[in-house]
Amino acid sequence: MTYAAINEQLLTEHKISVLLIDDQPMVGEAVRRMLEGEEDIDFHFVSDPTQAIPTAESLQPTVILQDLVMPEIDGMTMVKFMRVNSKLKDIPLIVLSTKEEATTKAEAFALGANDYLVKLPDRIELLARIRYHSKGYINLLQRNEAYKQLLESRDEMRKELAVAADYVTSLLPDPMFEGEIKADWRFIPSASLGGDSFGYHWLDDDHFAMYLLDVCDHGVGSALLSVSAMNVLRSQTLPDTDFLKPDNVLVSLNNSFQMDQQNNLYFTMWYGVYCKSERTLTYSSGGHPPALLFNGSETHQLRTPGMIVGGMPDMTYTSDSVTIAPGARFFLYSDGVYELQKVSDGKMWEFDEYTRFMAGTDGPLGTPIDQLIKHTRALQGEEMYEDDFSMVEFVFE
């Protein structure tokens, strides 16, 4: 199909959508009132800065308004995170500040902000800037839509990605069908190849390590970073690291793989250690989806608070632990196994729906994963996934 033929097709209509990130509810209410009555604008507000990025990824607004002074995270760092996130990097970002400072403006623009306003701005000016930036972004979305099929036809790139996917797969551990811990997995790389990798091995006679990481963005670069991180875990070559302590492992990974030294790439991570003699699983995570443990009649979502790995130096991570019952089933996975759009209504499959589905799976080792693959392919109406599908199942005897 030629560009002219694509350009003649009806392009998607996009409504203006505003996401305000500010820890002060009164600011959120003030902006809401400014935009109230504007039928062409949808307004969304998030006051928890730790939820800003996942909320923005879910909403996909046409413009983001972001405060510079927030608890728990520096506003400039948030701008940096937005600009290296593949889902958010092109969305117009208007920084809100209480001061008119040239140096602050310069830093914000250098990190990728599109505009700068002293809050609270005049209503007419705010509306004008929102519509101006949204119009440019909507034009970009429509241009990308027109080029989509042409970009997908680049055979040479697909060949390179296929080779990289084979390389990642060749480094994954063998399934374990015998012993006190059994493990099986499925890895289905996306067409653009995400940055998933995982592993598991005995640290000593009593401790078993298991981990999965997901690098931001897609392509060969993300895959290579994922493999590098996996290799240092497998070979236990991180300096000054106690691999029996998951929080210590994440601290070392964070310090060793800072994004400014990895082509602005970072990753989410889940790392756990099972103690056979005590039947306890100790774990730590950084920005990663919760692992699922079906422990007898109880269902546990295992996750600890923690930022993405590589985002900022000297981050603090914590560990938690849970007792494992005989016969417990445990699933470790990336967000690509459940973040998909349903063909039936165009809505995203919710995490709670995914959790309920997994609770209803059964059968021999590996069968629940196959049941999930069959179900999600039917939900999205196609075989290929937008992101890597990575899931490991463990059964504890």
From TrEMBL:
Pfam families per the UniProt record, alphabetical: Response_reg, SpoIIE
Residue intervals of the Response regulatory domain: 17-134
Annotated PROSITE patterns: RESPONSE_REGULATORY
Stretch forming the signal peptide: none
Name of the protein: Response regulator receiver modulated serine phosphatase
InterPro entries: Bact_Sigma-Reg, CheY-like_superfamily, PPM-type-like_dom_sf, PPM-type_phosphatase-like_dom, Sig_transdc_resp-reg_receiver
Taxonomic placement: Bacteria, Pseudomonadati, Thermodesulfobacteriota, Desulfovibrionia, Desulfovibrionales
Alphabetically ordered keywords of this record: Hydrolase, Phosphoprotein
Annotated GO MF terms: phosphatase activity
Biological processes, Gene Ontology terms: phosphorelay signal transduction system
Provenance organism: Maridesulfovibrio hydrothermalis AM13 = DSM 14728
Highest taxon listed in the record's lineage: Bacteria
Matches recorded under SUPFAM superfamilies: CheY-like (SSF52172), PP2C-like (SSF81606)
Presence of the UniProt keyword Phosphoprotein in the record: yes
Gene3D superfamilies: 3.40.50.2300, PPM-type phosphatase domain
Modified residues (4-aspartylphosphate): 67
